Amino acid sequence: MSVDRLIDAIDAKKNPTVLGLDPQPEHIPPDILEKYIAERGNTLSALCGAYEAYITALIDTLYDIIPAVKLQSACYEALGPEGMDVFLRGIQAARARGLYVIADAKRGDIGSTSRAYSAAFLGRTELNGTPLPVFDADALTVNPYLGSDNLAPFLKDCETYDKMIFVLCKTSNPSAVEVQEQTVGDRPLYRVIARQISDAGRHLAGRYGYLSTGIVAGATQPESIRQLRSLHPELFFLVPGYGAQGGTAADLAAAFDKNGRGAIVNNSRGIGCAWQKTGKPFVDAARDAAIAMRNDLREAL
Questions:
Q1: Beta-carbon count within 10 A of 104 CB
Q2: In this structure, are residues 243 and 293 in contact, taking their beta carbons and an 8 Å threshold?
Q3: How far apart are CA 45 and CA 61, in angstroms?
Q4: Which domain holds residue 98?
Q5: Cβ–Cβ under 8 Å, residues 161 and 124
Q6: What is the pLDDT of residues 189-211, one digit of tens each?
Q7: How many Å is the Cα radius of gyration of the chain?
Q8: Stated pTM of the model
C-alpha cells in the first residue's frame, strides 16, 4: 500500500517531515533569480528557470534528511504551460532521489471531471488501450465537498496504481472554521468528512493499520487533531501549519500514535526561505532548518 511506503520512508529517516515546494518569486535567492532574468528577461520563462533551480537545489540538499516532498501545483500553474513542465520535472527529480511525492492540487469535481483529475495526478490517460502516466505522483490532496461520486475515481486509482489521497478535513487557515465547524446532526462537519473518508478507504488498509485515504489536519487546530486521532486511529494525517503559520511541534504531537507514526508534517517557507533570516548560503540555511525541524519533532514525540 502507498501509505506503507510513506511510513517506511519516514521510519528510515526517523523524520516525519514533508518539504513543501511552493515557490514564489520572493522566495528565490537573488543570485538565482538574477541569473535567469539576465538570460531570459522579465518573463515567465525566467521565473520557470529560477523555480526549477530552486526546487532542484532543495531536493538535492535535503533528500538524505526528509522522506517526502509536497509540490503545490498552483505555484507552477501561475507560470503557465512551462510552469507545469517544471512541476513535472520537480516530481521526477524527487522520485530520482527516492522521495515520496505528494501533489498538492486539491482537486475534486463531478465524477467525469474527477476521473480526468485523477488520471492526471495519480492514474493514467488511455489511448487505444495504452495507459499513459502524466504527473504520476504518489499521493494527491483532494477536496471532498462534491460527495462520493467526486471521490470514487480517486479511490479507484489508489487501488489500481497503489496511490494515496489526503482529503481536506480540518485545515490550518483561520477562516476554515466558517465551514468546517458547522454542525451536521450532532457533529461538526470536519468529523463527518473524516468518518466518510475512513469508511470509503477501508479496502485500502496497509500493514501498519493505516489507510491510503488520509486527511489534511492543520497544526493550528491542536484540539481538533487530538479528537480526530482519538476517533480515527486508522487515518494518516497530512499536517500543514507548522512554523510560518504558527503551529508548533507540541501542538501537533497528538496527531501521532504511540509508536510515533500516523502523520507527516509540512514545512515550506520555514525551510525554503530560511536563508532570509540567517544570512547563510541558501542550501546551508535550508539544511540547518530541516535538521532543526526534524530534531524538534523527535523531541515532541
A1: 27
A2: yes
A3: 24
A4: 2-296
A5: yes
A6: 999 999 999 999 999 999 999 99
A7: 19
A8: 0.95
Cα torsion angle, 95, 297, 227, 205, sign: positive
Is 254 among the domain residues? Answer: yes
- Per annotation, catalytic residue among 106, 170, 277, 280: 106
Cα 192 to chain centroid, rounded: 22
Tell me: the pLDDT tens digits for 234-251? Answer: 999 999 988 666 677 887
CB 123 within 8 A of CB 114: no
Q: How many domains does the chain have?
A: 1
Q: How far is the C-alpha of 5 from the C-alpha of 22, rounded, in Å?
A: 23
Closest CA to 173 of 116, 246, 124: 246
Residue 21: name the closest of 59, 71, 96, 58 by CA.
71
Q: What is the CATH number of the domain that holds 69?
A: 3.20.20.70
170 is known as an active-site residue: no
